[in-house]
Amino acid sequence: MASRRNFLRNLAAAGGGASFLGLTSPAFAKEAEKQYKRWSQLHPGQAMTDDDFWGWVKESFTVSSSLLNLNNGGVSPQPKVVQDAHIRFYQFCNEAPSYYMWQILDQGREPLRAKLADLAGCLPDEIAINRNSTEGLNSVIFGLNLKPGDEVVLTRQDYPNMINAWKQREKRDGVKLVWLNLQVPIEKEDEIVSQFVSAFTPRTKIVHVTHIINWCGQLLPVKKIAAEAHKRGIEVICDAAHSFAHIDYKIPYLECDYFATSLHKWLCAPFGSGMLYIKKEKIKNVWALLSNNEPDGQDIRKFESLGTRSFASEMAIGNAVDFHNIIGSKRKEERLRYLKDYWVNQVKEMPKVSFNQPRNPSLSCAIANIAIRGMKPQEVSAELFNKHRIHAVAIDWENIHGVRVTPHVYTSTKDLDRLVTAIRELAA
């Protein structure tokens, strides 16, 4: 575990052009240090259920006290320290936009890139900062040199924007899409891997793997799939919209060639912030999606030719990384899995209740998908909201039908007791 000295050094490191401590109150910084000193002495199992620490985390957010938000898988709220930094950067820009945006804040992108690379465990020159997973993955999907007849393996359970991007390439360029229809939940990694491998042929050029299926929380073993793909000369694209800053890993561990995520989900960065990773030696193989003087060059920054964008949102990403690091990636994963298990275990034996996420803890984390026999998903979500003021999203996609429930680090067990009470009423 990092020392207190390392923690404070990291806390004070550049948050995208300005220090974290400089953009938050002294009281917050003092309390963050206090909390770190407390939980750094706890056993990991103790930290997972430490009410004082997680109570402090909850108080760091400005979420509604009446509406219980359990759709953090869509967009997560930001802690107040990130909101404050965002506002400060925004106000700063408005003093003289062209000067402060392009000559001051724009210089913070490289420190921010280094901060994200440190969190991701890769080289800064493998990271491009953009707006969301869709943008990052589209950059790869439309930038790859594929020929008519080249095959791409993907699943019916992938995210619609990615499915539509591949269908566009099929229609425009004649690539062949090879579909898997995963019968989730799947409890064994090898079963998942074998389904992907069975779809590979000598003409397969790309396998598109969703790390965590957004509809139900099924985690796919990207590393094992990538190993089999690379044996056959197949490149791997990883849609990590729901896994980055949710589960504890470094991107190189996955052994994928291309990777994109949304930072406004589990990292709790400003809305409309994302990150693209491309393995260093692969960058030259992907054409820039937007205009660039070297669209087929080796510089990852060619994917950042976005014109004028929200510098404030971008710079505040660094503060989100700092807040994430206060908690710690492993501790965060353990807490999120604990919260999912906390409510699921209280209702799983009810006769009318079933789930669409795996029981295997290595194949799921925070996201669960619950179905109640005799009720449509839309009816369940409507009842939860109208009677209990619980916001969760109905899912009707391919073979997945239920209500997705996604707590976050600010969610308390008392909040989830409210959910359990509501489910017991609905499933009685």
Walk me through what this model shows:
The protein has 428 residues and is of the alpha/beta class. The chain folds into two domains: 105-320, Aspartate Aminotransferase, domain 2, CATH 3.40.640; 331-426, Alpha-Beta Complex (Aspartate Aminotransferase, domain 1), CATH 3.90.1150. Helices cover 43% and strands 14% of the residues. The protein has 17 helices and 13 strands. The protein has a seven-stranded mixed beta sheet, with helices on both faces. Strands 9-10-13-12 form a four-stranded antiparallel beta sheet. It has a two-stranded parallel sheet with strand order 1-11. Strand 6, helix 12 and strand 7 (258-262) form a beta-alpha-beta unit. Helix 5 (80-95) packs across helix 6 (97-104), helix 15 packs parallel to helix 17 (413-426) and helix 16 packs across helix 17 (413-426). The longest helix has 19 residues, at 329-347.
Brief overview:
With 428 residues, this protein is α/β, with parallel strands linked by helices. It has helices spanning 4-11, 26-39, 44-48, 51-59, 80-95, 97-104, 109-120, 133-143, 160-173, 189-199, 222-231, 251-254, 311-315, 317-327, 329-347, 377-388, 413-426; strands spanning 68-69, 127-130, 151-155, 176-180, 204-210, 235-239, 258-262, 274-278, 353-355, 368-372, 390-391, 393-397, 400-405.
